[in-house]
Design goal:
mainly alpha; 11 helices
């Protein structure tokens, strides 16, 4: 019960602190609007059926990933800059639960990007929203949120002992968007990139969303992709657990959490 309270209060505080930051508000509000407009202009002559729904979801997911990327990595850097990272790590509650609360708060707040993307397309272009399998879409979005949370926790742990968080979080945003098929299908990528793409959980999350929008014709194919996404996400969680133990050991031995 105590751990749940820690997550709840951390989540609420994180959502307030994140929304105050101008960069986060830009990623949350302006980014999905601009992405929706750009993608619509790029795809309006593509002759692809139901392309507007793909655009809404693609732009929303791009905004969601940008918010998560800049918040999960940036929070560690902000705590270090404020001199509170060591205090949080040494707090009576579990450091992992605090990080989980921060990531969960950022993710819940970042879901607004999907709503803004849909509203932008609807208001500016009167775009029709056609979802053939809404039940599967809800399941896919839930799985997507969980996989993004797992990725965010791994990123936060990886960057806990690094002072180059700002460099890294800028380097991982755009490559993930392209490699995981947020905008274009991964099938058009070079062959040497495909193994990297298929090893990342957002690729399968986007695949599930696209299948849900166009209509799930084969439940077997859908649940195979869903199972792969679950396996990769579990792998991320196991890696996060390993990283936490590694970080805890190194911090206790070197005591360089603030200056590493």
């Amino acid at each position: 019960m105590k751990q749940l309270r820690v997550v709840w209060y951390t989540l609420r505080l994180q959502m307030k602190n994140s929304f105050v930051r101008p960069m986060f508000r830009f990623c949350l509000i302006a980014n999905p609007i601009v992405n929706t407009i750009l993608l619509y202009e790029m795809f309006k002559n593509s002759n692809q059926d139901n392309f507007t729904t793909y655009i809404m979801l693609g732009a929303g997911l791009m905004g969601l990933w940008s918010c998560i990327c800049f918040s999960s990595a940036g929070d560690i850097n902000r705590e270090r800059f404020s001199g509170t990272l060591s205090l949080i790590f040494a707090a009576p509650v579990n450091f992992g639960m605090i990080i989980f609360g921060k990531v969960l708060g950022n993710t819940i707040l970042s879901l607004v990007t999907l709503i803004i993307s849909f509203l932008t397309a609807k208001i500016l272009y009167h775009a029709p929203i056609m979802i053939e399998s809404p039940g599967y879409l809800l399941l896919s979005l839930l799985a997507t949120v969980i996989c993004f949370i797992a990725i965010s926790i791994c990123i936060a742990y990886l960057l806990t002992l690094s002072r180059k968080t700002q460099l890294y979080m800028n380097c991982i945003e755009i490559p993930i968007i392209f490699v995981c098929g947020f905008v274009f299908p991964v099938d058009i990528l070079p062959n040497w990139v495909l193994p990297i793409s298929y090893s990342l959980s957002p690729t399968w999350a986007v695949k599930l969303i696209r299948m849900s929008v166009s209509g799930v014709e084969s439940k077997t194919d859908y649940f195979i992709a869903f199972g792969i996404l679950v396996c990769i996400t579990v792998g991320y969680l196991l890696m996060a657990r390993f990283l936490y133990r590694l970080i805890e050991r190194q911090v206790r031995i070197k005591a360089t959490l603030e200056v590493s």
